[in-house]
Amino acid sequence: MVIVLRRASSSDIERLIADPDDWETFVYEEGDQQNDIVDFDKAWHALHFMLTGAAYNTDSPLGIIANDGETIGTDENGFGGFTVVSPAQMKMFDEALRRIDDAELASHYDHAAMLEHDIYIADAFAGLTREEALEYIFQSLPALRDLTASCAKAGDGALRILT
Q1: What crossing angle do the helices spanning 130-137 and 44-52 adopt, rounded to 10°?
Q2: Which of 5, 44, 56, 104 has the most CB atoms around it within 10 Å of its CB?
Q3: What is the pTM of this model?
């Protein structure tokens, strides 16, 4: 399972809610794929846990990566389509994320706690050094910081896709 965030304006979100069959084209073919999309690969759950201290749902504004939300549409296999991250949620996420630097976030790495909370792929970190695990978990962090800052400045939200 991987999670992807795709930048979406309010009008994009409205259009895709009205016609959810077009979401895959929007996510994977439209826009600037270099700057409009963040692919967390399988590190999404570990990053969410390190940001929020929660395995899943949290009231923290940093919870957009793994908080539940209404799934709209389906993919070609009939599974869930996307969840909307509103512009307001994105702005709050960006503000909270800017208050945490990489060193502070790295201090939240706790492999034993990840195992205890059944964080996705935490068992794979057992064979890695702390630095190797953090390198994998943080692989999308620079792109995430860029995307959320850009979205917050422009008043955009995002689609969150779990595949």
Answers
A1: 100
A2: 5
A3: 0.93
